[in-house]
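## retry 2 of 3
previous attempt timed out at serialization; input unchanged, resubmitting
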Amino acid sequence: MKDPIKYAPGEWGELAREWRRSLEADNKSVRTVVIYLGVVYQAGAWAMAQDEQYGPTETLRGYMKKVLDATSAGNAHNHFRTLRTFFNWLVNEEEIDRSPMDRMKAPEYEPPPVPILHVEKMSLLVASCSGKDFADRRDEAILRLLWASAGRRAEVAGLLLESVDQDYDEVEVFGKGRKLRRIPYGAKTGRAIGRYLRARRRHPQAALPALWLGSTGQGGLTDEGIRAIVERRAKQAGIGHVHPHMFRHAFAHYWQLDGGNENDLMRIMGWKSREMLNRYGASAAVARAHKSARALAIGDRV
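## retry succeeded, writing output
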């Protein structure tokens, strides 16, 4: 198989190869490694083509301006974060004394809000699976588990039969960084999973280890299969476009809206950085602020 990663000429490429080994040793996903090294390749190729009189910081500022002019603030922001991580790694490896990114500011960028999948729309999604055939049982269990666990699409798709603990109503997912974590789910989700498992026992491919099976004998569902189920059920429910990641944003929103502990939320979601607390549920931050304002009732204290 052809290696999807390109390397810039000279020292940029040599160091990028070493960084790749480090990223892989840290259990970064293949997709993450490809994205990170792609940015370093672009920056390195551009930097090597510049006049030698420019120092690293000025060269990087020029590169960031190029990305901003040619693409978008969001893309430039991602490039900045990747390059900052790369140069911090070089500092930790004692290849350089100080990161040239230390003297640079990230491009201003406000990520667009992700629409929240509200309870009312989730109810319509579940109602679209009201039948009793195999696909209905499976799809309701998948939708309820996405809603109740906030699992990533790939995490839910990758579940095995042995991943489900019906005694404790928990699933064990294989998350980013190849790390396992257990996530609880509620009684309604447990009931939907139980109904699906009973239907699954009669499936021609019931001996397969994958939890979710296709309806027509194609084996276990992929993460693209999960996406297709969500989109198809949303169309049936007449609620517009819905994608699996909206379930995670909704989970974070309702958790924070109801005053859930932030550290607990990080564990459930599989986050290591508190930055994610601000990113997820941000599209509904106004609703949370209004709820707090009403609860505090500062205007009624006089």
